[in-house]
Design brief:
41% of the residues lie in helices and 18% in strands. The chain is of the alpha/beta class. It folds into 3 domains: 1-34, no CATH class; 123-356, Type I PLP-dependent aspartate aminotransferase-like (Major domain) (Aspartate Aminotransferase, domain 2); 367-463, Aspartate Aminotransferase, domain 1, CATH 3.90.1150.10. A hairpin with a 5-residue loop joins β18 (428-430) and β19 (436-440). The radius of gyration is 23 Å and the shape is globular. The protein starts with a helix and ends in a 6-residue tail after the last helix. Bound molecules: pyridoxal-5'-phosphate. Pyridoxal-5'-phosphate (PLP) binds next to α8.
Length: 469
């Protein structure tokens, strides 16, 4: 029997290729698509759903022991950036679960593949008994990451934090017994015991013991012409003070939770060259930047691939992953775990990655660049016109955009975000001193949707919030 015949004899293939199943899946996803065409524009809570929606929000807060940040419980339907909530309102979602939904809501290819994943034999796949999606996802991630870098292998994890835990262990095993970690001020790496230590926010580790294992570097300050030199100097001081005791340099190629502040290649270059000369492993945390900056990886956008030893992703991929070079392939037993992602999430994640990597989104003139230019252009128009003095520092890369509103104080920004939410735009904060408003734009957002969002942002800024200018 030929290989082809053997493969088609598999019951698993018969299910996946069965014309009746394929047609049912197509019908299901098309029907969802038809129904979601009703979601057309921003609207407020609907009288018939308002109370039910409110009850869901309260019920959710009650069981969490803490209220929801926004009055948001989704109905399970949306369309592109538009999302329907349980109170019947429709909002423009420009934060997308903090970066999970790269293609916004009710994205048909993800739904279709999710159904196919859901009818496979297992709900969750594991490292011991994977199905094909496990391999395909790793192959896709490694093939995207290997462009311009030496990345060769990968290991799946359930989220960004766990991908980061694996990265740290890989670096530590390689540099054993070195302990100290180089990271930027205002970094974010997740909330496990150790990632909460790398994350530079004391509020996220209140009451936890400190391990004193992180050495901080100042992030790029575009206002300061000697910013790069300063950071390099601090780096050299750390290395001098901790000889042979630094296990890794970890950084987000654009400061994420810390304020959406990009830095140029020239800032990173001397730092990475120095780390390389000191044999300090280099790990890029691309959990948030993956697929958003205009290239698959921000290190490709910045031309830093030659320095990458380890890179971590999650969010957009619908699963976490640690990707590494030959040299950093860890010894057996160091990284593992039961789960490697649900079959539906792995298939949907692959559909998302195949779409974003189809040659039309990345690179100069690609869809991401066009979205960036339009949205940033509109924010700058407000900055110079109707919202003069109310918007500062419009920055970002690709689909990640932020600005500092009004006085940049936490209370002001939170009140403004709530106002925007009520009017129909969902965004989120980042940074401290100043606190900024950030957007994670979906990769298929239309100019019409962006213009509608900009109008709401403009209205909210002009109305302002109590006590702030
Ligand atoms: C840069 C970065 N690293 C790590 C994480 C943690 O990922 P997760 O929340 O999936 O554990 C995040 C989440 O926002 C992040 O932005």
């Amino acid at each position: 029997m030929s290989t082809h015949q053997e493969i088609t004899a598999l019951v698993g293939d018969q299910i996946g290729n069965d014309p009746e199943i394929r047609s049912l899946v197509e019908q299901l996803s098309r029907r969802v698509e038809q129904l979601t065409t009703q979601i057309r524009e921003v609207k407020g809570p609907q009288p018939s759903c308002r109370e039910v929606g409110q009850a869901w929000v309260e019920r959710t807060g009650k069981i969490r022991g803490r209220p929801l940040h926004y009055q948001f419980v989704g109905s399970g339907a949306g369309r592109s950036s538009l999302v329907e909530l349980m109170d019947g309102s429709v909002k423009i979602d420009l934060i997308n679960g903090i970066g999970i939904h790269l293609f916004g809501h009710s994205f048909t290819p993800a739904i279709r593949e999710g159904i196919l994943g859901a009818i496979s034999d297992v709900v969750n796949q594991g490292n011991l008994e994977p199905n094909r999606e496990y391999t395909l996802m790793l192959e896709k991630l490694v093939s995207m990451a290997s462009r311009g870098s030496r990345i060769k292998y990968g290991w799946l994890a359930t989220c960004g934090t766990m991908a980061n835990e694996s990265a740290l262990k890989i670096a530590r095993q390689k540099k054993s017994p070195a302990r100290m970690i180089l990271a930027f001020q205002n970094a974010f790496a997740g909330r496990s015991t150790l990632m909460a230590e790398i994350t530079d926010n004391p509020a996220f580790r209140e009451g936890l013991p400190e391990y004193h294992e992180v050495l901080r570097l100042p992030w790029y300050d575009y206002r300061d012409p000697s910013s790069s030199e300063k950071t390099l100097r601090v780096l050299k001081e750390h290395v001098e003070k901790h000889p042979n005791n630094i296990c890794v340099f970890v950084f987000e190629p654009m400061l994420g939770e810390g304020g959406y502040m990009p830095a140029p290649r020239e800032f990173f270059l001397p730092l990475l060259e120095f780390c390389r000369s000191q044999k300090i492993p280099i790990w890029l945390d691309e959990v948030q930047t993956f697929c958003r900056t205009g290239e698959a990886f921000a290190f490709q956008k910045l031309g830093l691939g030659e320095f990458v030893d380890i890179v971590t992703v999650a969010k957009t991929a619908q699963v976490g992953a640690t990707l590494y070079t030959e040299e950093y392939n860890p010894k057996p037993g160091l990284i593992a775990g039961t789960f490697s992602g649900s079959s539906a999430a792995l298939r949907s994640g692959l559909a998302i990655l195949n779409e974003i990597d189809n040659g039309t989104y990345f690179g100069p003139g690609g869809k991401i660049e066009k979205i960036h230019q339009f949205f940033v252009g509109e924010l700058k128009r407000l900055q110079e016109g109707s919202c003069r003095g109310k918007i500062a520092d419009v920055t970002g890369l690709g689909l990640m955009v932020a600005f500092t509103p009004l006085d940049g104080k936490k209370e002001t920004v939170n009140a403004l975000l709530q106002k925007m939410f009520e009017k129909g735009v969902i965004a989120f904060s980042c940074g401290k001193n100043p606190v900024r408003i950030r957007f994670l734009l979906p990769a298929l957002i239309s100019e019409w949707e962006m213009s509608a969002a900009i109008k709401i942002i403009e209205q909210a800024l002009i109305e302002g919030v109590h006590g702030a200018t």
